[in-house]
């Protein structure tokens, strides 16, 4: 009797399995289960935890959407870059943009000098990497504070300081976040590199990272730390707008602050290769062009230092396509570039 019932159940189960829909339902739940496992592993790897089950379920859905997108792009293999399930994988694109960027709309005319000291430069090396010249500090991480503008301005200032003094000194973003209220600059609320350069020039310099360490939140200006200047600049100049050839002359001579449109999902999850977009030209992020070159397949690129830690992109850097058809450059990289000036030795 028992055997008969067992056999009947087995037949029924087999019949159900053979029906396409139940098979699909089963593979769907298997996929769901493996996604849950991926989320758990990712959480452990990132040290991420959630308040309660509701938040976890909500974050899981976002994670799942992002992972499916990342997998589809990578599996298609049609782009010259790869995406990865990085630390931003449980954030919607909107959440990501709200806290990791922070480049504001620049006034017109802009606030650095319109003279361009590299205008007549003719000797331009075929490639440049300011890291190998000792003019670039290690990758930093702005965290959940919209002060990309401070990181970009500091990286360019660290560069010109090394070129003029021979010493590479890591400088303070927090001093800018706390003390610089010039122009559009509002700490984690966003700002402009041009305004930061003008502040540094007027303020007689910037102190070191170690003296005034990064906190990632707005705080009261520490006047005592602020007054301990470690690097000075004489002012700043804006690279002529919408000219990648002008930007090239500038980057050939020093690390340059550039504003880009970093709002896209592909930028959020960029992992390696030459980034070719898609992106618009609504500038929302400040970064630093620290070199340029040409890939093996002939694609020209800008070497760009970001401030999202070393786990994003190529150890914190992105190579962005150079010499594109649009005069604004890819993601608007040639639209609002600028740099600090100093008396070079
Ligand atoms: C570049 O050359 C032109 C023509 O000789 C000159 O007028 C201009 O001042 C030069 N620019 C710079 C920045 O030296």
From TrEMBL:
Residues 124-341 form the Peptidase C1A papain C-terminal domain. Pfam families: Inhibitor_I29, Peptidase_C1. GO terms for biological process: proteolysis. Residues 1-23 form the signal peptide. Residues 39-96 form the Cathepsin propeptide inhibitor domain. InterPro entries: Papain-like_cys_pep_sf (IPR038765), Pept_asp_AS (IPR025661), Pept_cys_AS (IPR000169), Pept_his_AS (IPR025660), Peptidase_C1A (IPR013128), Peptidase_C1A_C (IPR000668), Peptidase_C1A_papain-like (IPR039417), Prot_inhib_I29 (IPR013201). Belongs to the peptidase C1 family. This is Cysteine protease. It comes from Lithospermum erythrorhizon (Purple gromwell).
